[in-house]
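Weekend entry, working from home. Most of the wet-lab plans are on hold until the incubator is repaired, so I used the time to fold the two sequences that have been sitting in the queue since the last round of cloning. Logging both here for the record. First:
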Amino acid sequence: MDTLGGYGSSSDDSEGEQAPQQKVEDPSREHEKQLHLKGSGKFSGKSKVLDYSVMSAPTVTLNEAMDQRRHIDPTAKEVKYNYKYEELYAPEVGPHNPFKTQQQNATKNHLAGYVENAHVNEFQFETQRRTFHSFKYAYDPSTIDESEGDKLIGSSVSAEEAEFKTVFEDNKKRPLDKRKREKNTDASDIEGYLGPWAKYKDEETVSRPTDDDAAYLEEYLAKKQKKGKREEEVPMEESTTLHIKDDTDYQGRSFLHIPQDLGVNLKSDEPPQKCFIPKRQIHAWKGHNKGVSVIRWFPKSAHLMLSGALDNKVKLWEVYNQRRCIRTYMGHKQAIRDVNFNNAGDQFLSASYDRFIKLWDTETGQSVSRFTNKKMAFCCKFNPDDDKQNLIVAGTSSNKIVCWDIRTGDIVQEYDRHLAAVNTITFVDKNRRFVSTSDDKSLRVWEWNIPVDMKYIADPSMHSMPAVTPSPNGKWIACQSLDNKICVFQVGDRFKEMRKKVFKGHMVAGYACGLDFSPEMSYLCSGDGDGKIFIWDWKTSKLLCKWKAHDDVCIQVLWHPHEASKVASAGWDSTIKLWD
């Protein structure tokens, strides 16, 4: 302190060159100096640093003086010392979210609220549980306050009868509480020894229902047996009606003969040079009583058209000349699902919801044979190869593709890999393979006569495709997808989806609306759930034209293979229309 006291004087003062000025002390600051230098007797009073104290902090009352509690984090899982009750249950302090509701602000450790473990004596809990199970009453475990007394849950009448006793207390004996067993403990009696396994004296070994229960059970089983018993379905007798008088021409040729006096070469293998979008309706065929479900051109020439409808009938129509209904084929009990010609056109198949596929003679209307595997067929086709015209394939509701030989009527092959009903069968790659689509939202490619799929195309974004058509050049197939678009797949050496070639704009969700290419592949046309016909440009995928064609669903659209602008459409309004 002596050193600090002399810190304020300069070397000049000691030499006496200048007279030191007398320092004036402020008597009011003496008290502050005393506070700072309390206990320091050696302070000389010459320092400029320690003469005055600077008190920058205001005089405040500390928090500990106001709140003696020690604060604890509400999210803490562990504490290091014993907190008092008022510290554990103190209100939370700090900012809160003003936008939360009272329910959101509530303390929760469960979706429904705050759950706390309740520590209950295991014996007491088991006592009450067994009492409730036996006597239908127990004491209320949620009673908290002693002033509330014991509350009962359950039947108060049962409690009074049992005198409010639990199962561990003496109760009135019930009839079957203590039943006496038959006794035979003589081990030497080999036949009659019972031991601890003896029956009760009044035990019923065979339980029989009462008279009322027996009558009810008999009635129930009779109904169930009647419901489960499927009568053997007898196919309907086939019949046919010829609607024209002149079924042969002057040379004795039938209506199957391809006409040559129309100005159009119907025998040509070449498609029209350029196709055009049809402008107007030129004819409407009416004859079905219910909606038309499918139409097919006569093979190669398309001078006749075959239609199947929901009125269980198949009809054959003229496309040229008078455009009459030539013949009606009747032989199904339920609606027609699909029809298809063979290569020559002299026979065709019809598949119906009555679980039968029937083979018809086109000219005479006679039924040649019938096929069934007791499942519904959703599509049926002849093998397009000329040397395999005796083989037909059908996609059924049993997830199988079944192949029959029409000469023997036997099933010769089954393709069983799909996980849902098979909707379509399309032959590709020079008829060596075929593509099938199903309700399992997949597309499978099969080698003919090999019952294992060689290619499986499925994607989470794919939907069921209930209508498929091949392109005229055989390189593509167009599939009507139920998410309101047409998907295109490349077929041949490689099978893959062309993701960039998608046709949209129509509404087909829930309907198996047919689609078709124009013969020279410049257009793609499709029906629509609203009864419209849509035509897209094949190369650009742009929608070119649409118009209202039917009052109900337009279920099928077919482009004529030899006419540049003729399109046939079928609808659920029971009409077939021709557009040009």
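Second, folded right after the first finished:
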Amino acid sequence: MRCCRQLMESQNNKESTCSAFSGLILALNNQIAQSLSLFVDQSECLKSRLKSEPSAVTALNECLNGLCLVRTMESLLTMDNARKKVTLQVIEDSRKHYIRSKRSSLEMPSLILIDSFIGDSYLYEICLLLTKPDLADLISAGLKIRKAWSIFSESREKLLKLDKSAAVENVCASVAFGYGIINLVMSLIPPSFLSLVRLMGFKSDRVQGLYCLEECRLSADFHAPLASFALLWYYVLAKPFTCVNQLELDVGFQVAQDIVKDCSQLFDNSFILNFFRGKLALLRRELGDSCACLERARLSCAEYEEFTVLCSFELAWCAMIRWEIESAAETFRSIEDKSIWSRGLYPYLAAICFGAQGLKEECFALLHKISSIKKRSMNQVENFVQVRTTSFLSEKSTDCSTLFVTSVIEVLYLWRYLHLCDESVLETQLGTLSTLQTYIARLLSAAMLNILGRFDQCEDILKALLSEKKVEKHKFVLGFGYYELAICHWRMGQPKSVVRETLGRAIKLKDFEFENRLHMWSHNLLLNIVGSP
């Protein structure tokens, strides 16, 4: 396996990529301002050399690509609209330069490399567009995904027809990154969007995407560190959110650990790497190490509020997993107004943590605040928060802390953290929920029994719950109830046909909170455990 130090040495032997790679190393090691300064100065220097030295165009293209990447990183870390606007203009100007630099005298590998830079520019724009989840930006992002996909697919086909050489291998790695990242991300979209994806001409392949990213990661290409971080994102964020096969997850965690070890040689103090270290430690139930890594990540990138908020968010989850509800409440409250993704999520999480402690005044002040937030119909998290908030505000019994304990368990379940709680925590909360007979309390009790391996009890609760006539009006409980029953049947060793039939009932349900999340989980269970649906 090529380590990052060897990668750096190989880059030092390539004048055309050295400055671009050095700039990327600076950015990933918390020195974004210095990285931008290097890219700006270097690009101006290369532009001045073009007239007398046309061959400098390749180095300039790589430098502009690095500049666009780091500006995109900065925009995502700050969520500053002014910076975002400047970044989009830089990306557009750079793309125009790439197109102008395509000359008939260039050899095919050089032409394909320019195309890969154009494809990268669309990827950067997509990242920025998706930070504002309104319909117009989503449509624009979809169209740019289609353009990028076409570029990387055609480039890959061209490369396969060329004789292997050093120049071809270098370009292969660059194209592999774009081709791999699109395949991987598109393979993870909610099943409800699959028809739209197919209509746009996509045929995503997760295995191929992972293979291409690994190919790029082990190369001497500028994109190699990005491929490493993309794979870490998949193994410690995306996959654990959808997969319930612990053996498969453990294999992924080991792959992630190997990547972290490899990246540590160049990025040991990187805020991004420390974040992934923290998440990986959390998934392995090493909560002390997780908190330490997340805190280091937060402190090393203090000037970028959006990232510090993300780290605080994860630290609050660590507290919830330990059932340190007071600490979680205060952390969530400290970031309650700082989420761009869901304006109601952080105050809701703070509210239910306060409610679970019996702090009614703090809890209801936040709930009333949430009720005044204008709901965005396309945001399922906000829809969930508004439904639950409305329910709490309308019920007379909402002074009961047990109901808020139920809500804490519910969000741990929905964010895939419940199984990380200690057995003693789960047993205690099972006792708490046994005092309630609400549908959600019974569903969550069954989920905890599933985690604890008490499948007979789990099955009894779910069969009784799902057979009640009135539960048909509660699609959330019905859908997730069928999903948990399918997991229970799978772990009990029942026939695949039984698991498939139960999951089919969950998938057919529509129009309820976190419908897309349930359908994604159900489809992944079918694909990863039962076989193709």
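Plan for Monday: verify the second prediction. The two ends are 36 Å apart (CA to CA).
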